[in-house]
Every structure is written in C-alpha cells, then in structure tokens.
Write a structure and sequence with these properties.
The chain has a seven-stranded mixed beta sheet with strand order 2-1-5-4-3-8-9. The chain has a two-stranded antiparallel ribbon with strand order 6-7. By secondary structure, the chain is an alpha+beta fold. It has two domains: about 5-165, Glutaredoxin (3-Layer(aba) Sandwich), CATH 3.40.30; about 170-209. The protein is built from seven helices and nine strands; from the N terminus they run αβββααβαβαββββαα. It is globular, with a radius of gyration of 18 Å. The two termini are about 30 Å apart. The protein has helices spanning about 10-15, 65-75, 80-85, 95-105, 125-130, 170-185, 195-209, and strands at about 35-40, 40-45, 55-60, 85-95, 120, 135, 140, 145-150, 155-160.
Length: about 210
Amino acid sequence: MLKISEVCCEDEYDSMKNYEKTPVLMKRAPFWSGAAVQNAKLVNISMKDFINKYMVLIFYPYDFTIVCPSELIQFSDRFEEFQDLDSELIAVSTDSQYTHLAWTTTPRQNGGLGGMNIPILSDKNHRISKRYGVLDEELGVPHKAIFIIDNKQILRHVSTSDMAISRSVDEVLRVIKACQFVDKYGNVCPMRSPCDDDTCESKNTKDND
C-alpha cells in the first residue's frame, strides 16, 4: 500500500525541468493540488486525498459551453460505476473555483451543470495543465484529455483530443478494468472485455495448474 510520504510533492515537481511535456507512461504522475468545487462547496484537494485509489483526471477547456457539460454530466451520473472500481473522477479546467461554483449551482436547463457527484478542480495559474502537457498556450486553456493514474500513482493511460470530439465514459471504464486486470493477473489484457467470467476462469485455471 502506498504511503503519503511516497507521493511526489509540490517542491519536488517545481524543481524538475521540461514538465510542460506530456508525462511519461508507467512513471509517477505529476503532483497536483488546488482549489475545487465539491458538493457545491469550495474546498482544497490534492493528489494525496486519493492515495491508494485509481484517479481519472478529466481536462476540459471551458465552463459554460455546449459540449463540456454533457460530457461531465455523463461522468458524474455514472460515478458509482467508477467507485465500484475503487476509482475517483476529478474534472480540471483553467476556470476559477468561483466560476466552477457558479456553473455547478446553475440548473442544467439554464446551461449549468446542476448538482455534480465529482469535484471540479481549478487550474487558474495553469500549473497543472502545464505539468500534464495539455495547455494550449495561445488560448490559455487545456486540451481535452484523460489521464488514468493507478493506486500507486503511476500514470497508466493518456488520451488527448480535439476540443470538438466527445469522450466516452464506457471507454474510460474499459481502460480502468483493463489496468486492474493487468494489476491482478499480469501480462497482456485480452482484447475482450477485461475479466469477464470466461477470461478470469480460464486464467485462474492456468494459474492453478
């Protein structure tokens, strides 16, 4: 089990060079912390709050837009499926925590998010977006990106996309299941849905032979 003392800290990351490049897979994920909105309240959260859990960082460009809310609402509405996998979702943009608060307290029929089940982190100083290599310097906003970090805070999956392209909740769940399958059984995850009954039974049988 990972200890808090083993988590990369702010000072350690500030001393590193070239952290504006996309982080390297299978290495320790860049540390992050900041002000956020959670359960309609302003809070401070950090990577250390999610120790020994899988984390999904969902970078998006703007609050109060058409595409971003539909994606975030889908992730929020299905948060229990992620919790069943011992995983947590954190949305991130360069809007302030106050803008996040206004967005989450605006009813959905009026263009807001309404009640959300996941925290929304403010990266107003662009530090997190730079560390994860997703900041559009000209616009001052992050590209759409998904980072999956495992329970040892190792970066396991990265996907970035054009701002106009939507993202799939099912695909993110599939990748987490695949990572956890590999964590448990090692080697390469089958192409089929990870850890379905046939796959797991087959693997267990081989292990017991």
